[in-house]
Design goal:
Elements lengths: L27 H4 L9 H15 L3 H14 L4 H13 L3 H15 L3 H17 L3 E4 L2 E4 L8 H23 L2 H13 L3 H9 L8 H14 L3 H14 L4 H13 L3 H16 L10 H11 L5 H13 L3 H14 L7 H12 L1 H11 L5 H14 L2 H11 L14 H8 L1 H21 L3 H5 L5 H4 L7 H10 L4 H11 L1
Antiparallel strand pairs: 1-2
Helix pairs in contact: 2-3, 2-4, 3-4, 4-5, 4-6, 5-6, 6-7, 7-8, 8-9, 9-10, 10-11, 11-12, 12-13, 15-17, 16-17, 16-18, 17-19, 18-19, 19-21, 20-21, 21-22, 22-25
């Protein structure tokens, strides 16, 4: 079973700014109240609408709705939460925090407000003074917040820890316990962090993450014997988990055993770059094969020749694993090697599709998604179709830093009528929204949506109009669609 970790990382660096951030500290026990007002049905409906706007990366619209709600119905804590969080998602960090804290001051120790504040504090700690996550996009500020970077991060971590410790006392929920332990680790209180992590060892969801962090804390405490023992226990259950080999390599570096550290680092690199369900095991031969296809020093013609030799061996499963390794590596984009691997997988057909589908669901590049979708379009497996449908809507909110995959085109190749139907279903709510949205930043968030419209230009107008009518497109919506296709 693939080991999953819930981790967040902070990088501390020193800036010359002397201004210090000071967060408000609440005595939640004294503020404790069971009488805070619940929101009425009207507010609940608006909260749902605001949540949808935020999911669509449209914080400007969320602010407009939530401010009106806050101004008119501030007799329940929910209006403080949604307005504060909408401001925060718009990049107005301190304004958002201020609204949440006003809610706590007014209503007392409301768990929902405290939890939201802790989440906001953690994001501020993680991103620091020069970066914000605004509507799904990382925005870097040249004129950073005028705070000492390390102190800014530390103060936000401490604020989040106070919030989490109160929530743990009230509910004892595993999620809060995990993040409290992680903050203690980041604040270098490794012994306390391990005490907290150990309370999660009977929780199936958090057990593996807790074990990993306990072992990592042992490294920080220079207790390498305990750290190695813990990591080896995890490795017995997760023999293909690259990060465990990384940590064991780190331990052997401390032990000055260079040969063992290098071997473990090689295993980490190998398992990191092959699909998780690959049948390729770590060996000298397979490591060299990975390095051969991953190296820029080998010319494309040489790689293509090697790939053809593998194909000629007539070992379909081995060939599938090699081709998927090439696609996951993503070091041969545009030189013909990835294209050849994709073609081979399509020709192998049905025997390849299970592993193709699994790789499609993993964290791979958008170019790799395009290649995998090409195989899916050729094989026409129904499970593949469902995965493509699920991915299709994600393109609409994809950050502008990513090149969107040509998935819509591949869906039309899979089945023209079904592909067109799914695309038109996905873009229908986007058309009017984009026409009415004057916020340039929000518009940038959907810049990759051209991949929806480009393949529709090859579809006859009659078919397009017929399917649009079946989906109840208005004349205005169809006109907007045609404008996008041009």
């Amino acid at each position: 079973m693939k080991l999953k970790f819930l981790l967040f990382f902070l990088t501390f660096s020193v800036y010359s700014f002397s201004q210090k951030l000071q967060r408000t500290v609440f005595d939640y026990e004294k503020l404790k109240s069971d009488n805070f007002a619940a929101c009425d049905e009207t507010v609940a409906k608006e909260q749902e609408n605001i949540s949808i706007k935020l999911q669509e990366n449209n914080s400007t619209a969320a602010i407009a709705i939530s401010k009106k709600l806050y101004d008119n119905k501030n007799d329940c804590f929910g209006t403080f939460e949604v307005y504060g969080y909408s401001l925060f998602r718009n990049g107005q960090w301190f304004e958002g925090i201020d609204i949440i804290e006003k809610g706590i001051t007014k209503f007392g120790s409301v768990p929902e407000l405290i939890k939201r504040k802790s989440e906001m504090s953690l994001e501020m700690a993680e991103l620091g003074t020069r970066q914000k996550n605004i509507d799904g996009n990382s925005v870097f500020k040249a004129d950073s917040l005028q705070y000492n970077e390390d102190q800014f991060k530390e103060e936000n971590l401490k604020s989040a820890l106070i919030d989490l410790e109160y929530l743990i006392k009230v509910y004892g929920r595993s999620e809060e316990i995990y993040y409290a332990a992680k903050i203690q680790q980041l604040l270098t209180n490794y012994t306390k962090s391990n005490e907290t992590f150990k309370t999660l060892l009977n929780d199936e969801k958090y057990k593996n993450a807790a074990l990993f962090n306990i072992a990592d804390n042992y490294i920080a405490l220079k207790d390498f014997t305990s750290a190695e023992a813990e990591f080896n226990k995890m490795l017995a259950e997760n023999p293909k988990e690259a990060i465990i080999y990384d940590k064991l390599s780190e331990i052997y570096e401390f032990k000055k055993d260079k040969a063992k550290a290098t071997e473990l680092a090689s295993k980490s690199m190998f398992y990191q770059n092959i699909p998780s369900d690959s049948d390729l095991e770590y060996s000298k031969e397979n490591l060299e094969l990975l390095q051969f296809f991953g190296s820029d020093e080998n010319k494309p013609a040489k790689k293509l020749k090697k790939l053809q030799e593998i194909l000629n061996q007539n070992k379909p499963q081995y060939t599938i694993d090699v081709c998927l390794m090439i696609l996951k590596l993503h070091t041969n984009h545009g030189n013909g090697v990835e294209e050849k691997a994709t073609e081979i997988l399509k020709n192998i057909g049905k025997p390849s599709i299970e592993k193709v589908n699994k790789l499609f669901q993993s964290n791979v590049s958008t170019c790799t998604i395009t290649n995998l979708a090409d195989v899916m379009a050729g094989v026409k497996d129904e499970n593949s179709w469902e995965l493509m449908k699920q991915y299709l809507s994600y393109i609409a909110t994809m950050p502008m830093t990513l090149i969107p995959p040509n998935l819509p085109e591949k869906m039309i190749q899979f089945n023209e009528d079904r592909g067109i139907t799914e695309i038109l279903t996905t873009v229908k709510p986007l058309l009017t929204k984009q026409e009415n949205n004057e916020d340039p930043l929000s518009q940038l968030g959907g810049f990759g949506q051209y991949v929806y419209y480009s393949p529709l230009g090859k579809v006859s107008n009659e078919k397009l109009k017929k399917i649009a009518a079946e989906l109840k497109y208005s004349d205005k919506e169809f006109s907007l669609l045609k404008d996008k296709i041009k």
